[in-house]
Amino acid sequence: MNRQNGPMPLTIMAFNLRFASDQPPNSWPQRRPVVAEVIRQASPDFIGTQEGLAGQLSDIVTDCPDYVAIGTGRDPDQSGETTTILYRRSRFAALEFGHYWLSDTPDAAGSRSWGSAFPRMATWVRLHDHEADADLHLVNTHLDHESAEARLKGAALICDRLAEVDHGLPVVVTGDFNADAGADPTYDVFLAAGFTDLREAAAERLGPDYGSFHDYGPPVPGGAHIDWILARGPIVASSFRLINTEVDGQRPSDHFPLVASLELTG
User: Fold this and answer.
1) What confidence tens digit (pLDDT) does each residue in 28-50 have?
2) Rounded distance between C-alpha atoms, residue 92 and residue 19, angstroms
3) Could you give the strand order of the β-sheet that contains 92-101, starting from the edge strand earlier in sequence?
């Protein structure tokens, strides 16, 4: 890295989009403008999304044209839900990227193991930050909601893959982990691999401390935090917040988006 101007601020968002439906209430046409408004207000440099379908991601890039989308569907024909990463084209260039499935055969599209209810996957990208003249590595995932074994082994697979990444490189992992941070052994897999939960590590935690999944119902103070932003390497988190935004009573998703403000310090 060549850090010429001191620590460089970055903003990252984790956002389970909820897959598109045309059935009200909470259809994608109803939610699309709220999603775009949330992204514009938060102005993240990159976004780890879960559940979004190809058409949804295309709509988001149309509504927020400074973003580039990297993703593919989780099913054998690579259709279906994605773990797409969006990054700001005016600041970053993708040096390399890829996808793997959380199974015994991770390079086989649509594969699943360990009792997973659905195929689960991870998308990764190595970005070059033009402003910082530095590289960073992002991973985005969505772990299984039914099988504890699939969550544990999926987390271990992600960490094994990341063990091959230069430990001097900043690494950020975003996702819907379907596991309560601090109360589930899946969380411990990442901590043992050197990751920090930015919700806990941030110098300032802003906004309400709701559980990250609300299912379009009332927010739950102190509820389960199943959506995480994790980091390893030369990264310091200045703030963390959960976005509790609605427009005319419409929420953007059944999960709250999360935003962390970071600095690259290496």
Assistant:
1) 999 999 999 999 999 999 999 99
2) 27
3) 92-101, 121-129, 134-142, 171-176, 227-232, 196-197
Whole-structure pTM value = 0.96
Give the helix, strand, coil percentages of the chain, each rounded to 5: 20, 35, 45
Q: Is 166 exposed, middle or buried (0-12, 13-18, 19+ CB in 10 A)?
A: exposed
| Cα–Cα distance for residue pair 16/255, rounded to 1 Å | 6
CB 207 within 8 A of CB 42: no
pLDDT tens digits, 149-191: 999 999 999 999 999 998 899 999 999 999 999 999 999 999 9
Nearest to 12 by CA among 245, 214, 174: 174
The CA-based angle 32-52-256, given to 5 degrees, is 70
DSSP characters over 160-174? HHHTTS-TTS-EEEE
Q: How many Cβ atoms sit within 10 Å of the Cβ of residue 63?
A: 15
- Give the HSE-up count for residue 82: Cα atoms under 13 Å, Cβ half-sphere: 26
Q: Which residue has the tokens 């310091």?
A: 236
Whether residue 244 contacts residue 256, with contact meaning beta carbons closer than 8 Å, is answered with yes
- For 103, counting Cβ atoms within 10 Å of its Cβ (0-12 exposed, 13-18 middle, 19+ buried), the class is buried
